[in-house]
Amino acid sequence: MLKVCYFTSKKSSDVRVFEKECSSLVNAGYEVYLVSPNAKDEIKNGVHVVGFPYKPKGLFQRNFSLPKLLYKKALSINADIYHFNDPSCLHYGAKLKLKGKKVIFDSFEDHPLLIFEKKTIPYPVLYIISKIYTAYEYYYCRKFDAIISCYHWTQERLEKTCKNNKLIFNFPVLTGSRTKFEDSTKPSLCYAGLFSEMWKIENIVRSLPELGDVQFNLAGHGDNSYIDKLKNLEGWKKVNYIGLVKREDVHNIIYAKSRIGMVLLDYIPLCKGNIGNLSNNKFFEYMMAGLPIICTDFILWKEIVEINKCGICVNPNNINEIAAAIKYLVDNPEIAKQMGENGRKLIEQKYNWKAEENKLIGLYKTVLD
Questions:
Q1: Is the N end or the C end of the chain the one with fewer CB atoms within 10 Å?
Q2: DSSP strand pairing (42-44 vs 47-52)
């Protein structure tokens, strides 16, 4: 049995790493080891989870000390194929190639674009850093056996370095049962995830005062100063603030008590303005739950939502558009329900992990040929 070692700075419970990629490889017949800092040594879902002690002390240690520790622990596994997703580990991926190993780089983000989200740094400086990183990435990616990309433009860029480049999206694992919605006298919205400026939660709260008896079920985590800012808004009195919820409880605690999923991602660099991307799991999870969605009017999202009639696309910075979309779905519950059904069917038919799993297994086969 061929041995695979996936090493990452992410938690061993990371959904994409553990539940999707590693578990899929186990099901395909590989002996899979997952190396992650501070993970509990155990065999879970057939995956051999391997940890080592690590106390984060700052950005320097994360980018230099941690990659070295990951490499040493991964090397001790003596696997046939090594799979990693941290750009700070590119150098160690090359070292593994020199030792005769097969190596796959999994680019979870488009890192040259991600750099531009550091708004505290002047743009000219970010531009130079981005160019330097791009050259660094090109240099090492030429050495690898395969690359996994999650954005169309990342794949196009990295194909110049490695032709064995597969676009694999972070689509949800399809659950067999649908969300059982609870009866509720109040029409309700929901958001579950990271609280930050880029998710335009503030604009959702600002839209609430003129929307009658609408409730906003809000769950997640984020910067306390941002949460305090939300609490000072007039619309906060209509917010049902639940706080952090375990991932396995989100459906019962949040989705089942809601009627509309809110996915208002800002026009961030990783979305190339109004283009958007298809690697945002929240967008698809709401549809899988059977919720109609109100989402950003990205070109890629509009092609899914408007054509398949599973929600409404708006400018995330236009409070009037947000309020009008909410009002329409609240005033037309049967249309909203049908949109939710359309979204669920779309996930069942196309946008689920099974199709992406087949791409992953196919990529591994090409690496071994």
A1: C
A2: antiparallel
Query: Which helix (H) or strand (E) segment is 138 a member of?
Result: helix 123-141
pLDDT tens profile 229-243: 999 999 999 999 999
pLDDT tens digits, 25-68: 999 999 999 999 999 999 999 999 999 999 887 776 777 799 99
Q: How far apart are CA 120 and CA 225, in angstroms?
A: 17
Question: Could you tell me the CA-to-CA distances from 344 to 11, 200, 309 in Å, in that order?
Answer: 29, 25, 11
Residue 269 neighbours by CB under 8 Å, 6+ apart: 113, 114, 116, 117
Burial class from Cβ neighbours inside 10 Å (0-12, 13-18, 19+) for residue 208 reads: buried
To 5 degrees, how large is the angle CA 344–CA 349–CA 350?
100
Nearest Cα neighbor of 293 from 248, 346, 252, 368 is: 346
Measured distance CA(362)–CA(353) in Å, rounded: 14
Q: Is 146 exposed, middle or buried (0-12, 13-18, 19+ CB in 10 A)?
A: buried
- Enter the tokens of residue 266: 């800002």
Q: How far apart are CA 334 and CA 320, in angstroms?
A: 23
Can you tell me the distance from the alpha carbon of 75 to that of 5, in angstroms, rounded to the nearest whole number? 9
Neighbours of 258 (CB within 10 A): 25
Return the structure tokens found at 18: 């553990």
β-sheet with 188-195: strand ranges across? 239-243, 215-222, 188-195, 260-263, 293-296, 311-314
Please state which CATH number belongs to domain 188-349: 3.40.50.2000
Fold matches, 3-171+352-368 and 188-349: yes
Q: What is the mean pLDDT of residues 176-194?
A: 79
What gap in Å lies between CA 339 and CA 362, rounded to an integer? 34
Measured on CA atoms in the order 218, 222, 228, 232, is the torsion positive or negative? negative
Rounded Cα gap, residues 216 and 41, in angstroms: 40
Closest C-alpha among 348, 337, 350, 326 to residue 291: 337
Look at residue 294 and give its three-state secondary structure.
Answer: strand
pTM attached to this predicted model: 0.91
Of 109, 107, 110, the residue nearest 165 (C-alpha): 107
For the chain, domain boundaries: 3-171+352-368, 188-349
